[in-house]
Amino acid sequence: MKLNYKRTFLVGFAFLSISAFWQMYDTVIPLILRDTYSLPDGPAGIIMGLDNVVALFLLPLFGSVSDGNRAPKWVWFAMLGAGIVTGAISWLTGSAATSAWLVATLPWISGSLATIELICEILASICAAALIVLPLMTTLARASAKLGRRIPFILFGTIGAVLSMAILQYAEHYLGLLFFGAALGILLIFMGAYRSPAVALMPDVTPKPLRSKGNAIINLMGAVGGAFSLVAIKMLVRETASGQTEYLYLFLTIGILMILAALTVVFTVPENKFVQEMRDINYGVSEEEDQGKAVEVDGKEKLPPAVRTSLLLILATITLWFFGYNAVTTAFSKFATKMWSSGLEHVANCLLIATAAAIISYLPIGFLASRIGRKKTIVIGLIIATACFIFGAVGAQKFSPFLYVMFAAIGFAQAAVTVNTFPMVWEISRFGNVGKYTGYYYTCSMAAQIVTPIVSGYLLQYVGYNTLFPYAAIFVALAIIPVALTKYGDSKPSAPKDKLEAMQGADD
Known about the structure:
By secondary structure, this protein is mainly alpha-helical. It has 2 domains: 5-276, Up-down Bundle (Growth Hormone, Chain: A), CATH 1.20.1250; 302-505, Growth Hormone, Chain: A. 79% of the residues lie in helices and 2% in strands. It has helices spanning 5-35, 41-66, 73-94, 96-105, 113-143, 151-174, 177-204, 211-236, 248-268, 271-280, 287-291, 305-339, 344-372, 374-395, 402-428, 434-462, 468-485, 499-505; strands at 238-239, 245-246, 295-297, 300-302. The chain has a two-stranded antiparallel sheet with strand order 1-2. α1 (5-35) runs antiparallel to α2 and α3 (73-94) packs antiparallel against α5. It starts with a helix and ends with a helix.
């Protein structure tokens, strides 16, 4: 059994589009909030964290809907209720009479009213947009069923996101902060609408034993998309004669890339055909094994207890990993500038080395997992990362060239974990719920990325910067325990029957 590399690269264009957008979003939106609207770092940080908060709920939802499931009724009532509440709060805090009363009653809130109004405006826009976009996307997907389950979401989600980017640009130049926030909320909905379906497309068209290799290629395509955005930011962002920063050409370029990537997937990936091929070979596993992953309970299909336990253990591993790893990635610049003299000279180099090492490692990690298994590969990565963070706790008090080696090893470890944890989740899924399980992965990773910057930030502030690497080492070390106990989700190819088959396998 061999991976179809051409097919996987073509599917990867969807993830390239996602990565290009988020690299641009994470780089540019904070600058717009600071420079255009003079928003302080605190409120701007809260707004930048809203995409992770939204992702907690939307990614599993849209993933499940792209599987062909209906959104539960309580979801509609929840979004409607949240929209009404946040919209009302936004209106009340923006009202002169109400704001005056609040300041008189709660003087300490005076400096936060504008921020509360903006955040509630964004959340209300997200809820309102979700109530419109979710049924619209579902209807379009069903009407375009010949394209497949995932591709309609990728296509229409991309179109909606690009149009929202145009609205965002218009709002920045001609409208106030509240309109900009509303446009931002709509944009986040469209990006959430196709993120899970885009990621779920690869496992849909890839045999289960080969999904680590496939995920390695998907991550590589994502890195290309991120690099494209960084180059575009450097070349296309410029200041006008009035001293304002102009992002029009950057937004236009990223929008064109996203459209071209979506069209590439639409015209080169016959999803229904490829999915049927995978169903014919049953994802490379026996029919009994796949059917054994579901039991009927009260008329509903559920995982057997042992399989469900393995899923929870894998998700725990993902959560603990991001708790440790993300703490370092978000606070390393502050750590370096605080602990080292001339720290800024080395921060970018360390992070660049880690990123480059991860990119270089993606494909070799995929091959390694196909030989020794995903579980062992993840454990190796976690052990390496733990050792690196322990070294950082001891040896990062002052800058040393050995830190470049440490960050290269961290990049390798990151590749080992991310390339294989996703396929372990997919391995447990069945054909009808890959999108939902993709959402589960993102829920855990996003939750960790929301919480850990806050927890580690308070430790840095009140205990000291020496806590950063020990904090990361503890959580990454803890992540070894649940993955070691996992009994399902690994996939190793069966031993070749003869020497000829072994030689063929070596060509993978």
